[in-house]
Fold this sequence. Notes:
By secondary structure, this protein is mainly beta. About 0% of the residues lie in helices and about 50% in strands. The chain is globular and about 45 Å long.
Amino acid sequence: xxxxxxxxxxxxxxxxxxxxxxxxxxxxxxxxxxxxxxxxxxxxxxxxxxxxxxxxxxxxxxxxxxxxxxxxxxxxxxxxxxxxxxxxxxxxxxxxxxxxxxxxxxxxxxxxxxxxxxxxxxxxxxxx
Length: 128
């Protein structure tokens, strides 16, 4: 059974920074894509950023490019999302998600429907 355990999040003022962590366990395959998605009240869930374990390729939503950075620790099977210059519109529940499989299909993207496993989510609030 795949488990994704998120940590981090909370409240921050505009312009501030936060870091999210997602520790994964139980993958069947050695290769996986892992990342972050978010859902604000009254809005659909959207992709934020993902990273592929096969080549560390990344994908970002246009709204976070230049402000958020995704990384991973291969030994710990943990993904991190460093979020800088946070804005009120970044307020949402952030979910860690992942999928695993053969290397040739682990092409990174940020489509929610492509992900197989989901964490419980953590709230981020950006407000003055």
